[in-house]
Write a sequence for this structure.
């Protein structure tokens, strides 16, 4: 068996490659020096600067609102799409439907962004809606590509679902709608939570699509970061990155602990 | 089966409204299925399929001043509707060297980066698949974790790492090695793609590798094959679906990449996502940008079909 020295070393190198840039970024966020990579002492001043920057704070708040709205819309649409794809064996236009659901996953961002902007412009000149571009158009754009991700997550949960539970509910006289809310929904709830979180993260992260469909005065956090980074070195971005990485790490840690606590009964059997 | 006595649970009061709603809708010919399908189908039709049609339409217009900055496809003159289509944008794509070069160089950069990602990711996926059970989940979590941290910030972290006075060069300096120029080169773009897309390569590879039947390796060893031989003639062919799925998951988005070449690449790093961006934001030539997007779609359609086939194979196993 291949249990020699090669695999562990290759894996260790790979993991250090994945984490070294992030770790160095976190370390240098506490650096006092303006030059990002010259260490001249521990300092929290970039964090202070970050929280005094109204542009950064405004963009962060806008991004959080957009992400929450887009993830929620995507959750509803993605769940419905997943139910349709897993539960309805055959219906007219199934191929087209499943294609539409999964295509945004692989579509290059620049194309999605351009396409939605051209649609919004054409719609505005035809029917007068949406008026201008801003939060609304970004939410619509993000909800569209997040739907695809939610659908994938919910689909995989639905397909290893014990159908007999739903059949039992129906036999006992529950309507399909009631069966869905009282039986199906609680069982797929974990997938819904992770689908929503995935959509939220993806929306928070998107730069390209938001750049296309945003208007003047509605810059999301990635857009502000991108323009700052492009202009040159800005140590407060290090501080912001560290905060985001910290929140994500805590979130993942919490999710893991919850999962580990609820699993042993099943997994050990 | 008929119930001999009234069930006391669930309370019938909560049962009625749902049934009533469904019955009333059924009377108008609306079934539950239609309702479930309607919302996502309509949304994706309006905000995904139609936009692509709009892009195609506008790619056949020409640039003009005004709002919107492209010529109308349909115009009414003397009571007749006229359809004016321009192929100039597409002709330009083939005759102007910039576009051909950009497509070719995007494919080249994405392909080389994908191969490097495969070489880096395969041993990692294999090591995770062979790791003891309690380690496996932790290692997988470590692979997925960077995916949840911002893509943009990870690319930014790389700039601090590879800059002239960055971490790598400081470490090299300790050994008396001259600083290397890494930023603003194609090399930096390769590193950027490998770094950010590595999880997409490792996960499908892991999924196929962990399902491989270990008795096959034992059989191969019993028959006298050395480990390397076993790997090349047993493991590698069996993990092909994972290799294809992972490669496509890296290759397809890398072709259209905008953030990595603009933050890490140099001025001569030519990628089609950047060309589209400049065409749109700098030159404000919407029809040309639309034509670039349509041609880009054609370039990624074949890899997408390959991906779908490979994913089917990964899931079936």
């Amino acid at each position: 068996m291949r249990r020699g020295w090669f695999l562990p070393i290759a894996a260790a190198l790979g993991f250090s490659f994945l984490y070294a840039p992030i770790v160095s970024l976190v370390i240098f966020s506490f650096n006092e020096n303006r030059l990002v990579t010259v260490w001249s002492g521990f300092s929290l001043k970039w964090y202070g600067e970050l929280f005094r920057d109204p542009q950064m704070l405004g963009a962060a708040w806008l991004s959080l609102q957009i992400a929450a709205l887009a993830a929620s819309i995507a959750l509803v649409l993605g769940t419905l799409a997943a139910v349709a794809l897993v539960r309805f064996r055959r219906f007219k236009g199934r191929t087209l439907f499943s294609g539409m659901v999964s295509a945004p996953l692989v579509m290059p961002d620049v194309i999605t962004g351009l396409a939605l902007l051209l649609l919004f412009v054409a719609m505005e000149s035809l029917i007068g809606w949406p008026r201008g571009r801003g939060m609304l158009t970004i939410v619509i754009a993000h909800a569209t590509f997040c739907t695809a991700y939610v659908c994938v997550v919910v689909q995989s949960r639905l397909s290893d679902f014990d159908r007999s539970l739903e059949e039992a509910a129906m036999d006992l006289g529950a309507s399909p709608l009631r069966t869905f809310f009282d039986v199906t929904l609680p069982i797929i709830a974990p997938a819904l939570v992770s689908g929503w979180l995935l959509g939220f993260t993806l929306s928070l992260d998107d730069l390209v699509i938001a750049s296309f469909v945003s208007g003047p005065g509605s810059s999301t956090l990635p857009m502000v970061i991108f323009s700052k980074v492009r202009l040159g070195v800005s140590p407060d971005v290090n501080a912001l990155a560290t905060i985001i990485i910290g929140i994500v790490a805590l979130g993942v840690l919490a999710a893991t602990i919850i999962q580990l606590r609820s699993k042993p009964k099943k997994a050990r059997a | 089966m008929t119930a001999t006595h009234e069930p006391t649970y669930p309370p019938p009061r909560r049962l009625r409204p749902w049934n009533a709603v469904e019955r009333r809708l059924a009377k108008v010919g609306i079934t539950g299925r239609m309702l479930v399908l309607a919302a996502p189908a309509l949304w994706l039709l309006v905000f995904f399929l139609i936009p692509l049609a709009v892009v195609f339409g506008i790619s056949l217009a020409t640039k003009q001043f005004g709002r919107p900055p492209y010529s109308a496809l349909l115009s009414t003159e003397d009571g007749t509707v006229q359809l004016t289509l321009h192929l100039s944008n597409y002709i330009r794509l083939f005759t102007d060297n910039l576009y051909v070069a950009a497509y070719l160089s995007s494919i080249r950069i994405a392909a080389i980066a994908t191969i490097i990602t495969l070489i880096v990711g395969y041993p990692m996926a294999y090591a995770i698949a062979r790791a003891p059970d309690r380690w496996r989940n932790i290692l997988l979590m470590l692979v997925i974790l960077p995916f949840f941290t911002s893509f943009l910030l990870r690319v930014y972290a790389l700039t601090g790492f590879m800059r002239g006075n960055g971490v790598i060069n400081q470490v090299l300096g300790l050994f008396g090695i001259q600083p290397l120029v890494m930023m603003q080169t194609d090399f930096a773009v390769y590193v950027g793609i490998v770094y950010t897309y590595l999880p997409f390569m490792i996960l499908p590879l892991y999924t196929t590798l962990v399902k491989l039947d270990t008795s096959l390796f034992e059989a191969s060893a019993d028959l006298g094959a050395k480990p390397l031989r076993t790997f090349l003639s047993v493991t590698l062919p069996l993990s092909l679906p994972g290799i294809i799925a992972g490669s496509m998951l890296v290759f397809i988005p890398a072709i259209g990449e905008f953030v990595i070449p603009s933050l890490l690449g140099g001025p001569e790093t030519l990628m089609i996502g950047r060309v589209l961006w400049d065409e749109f934001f700098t030159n404000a030539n919407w029809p040309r940008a639309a034509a670039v997007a349509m041609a880009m779609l054609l370039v990624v359609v074949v890899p997408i079909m390959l991906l779908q086939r490979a994913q089917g194979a990964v899931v079936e196993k």
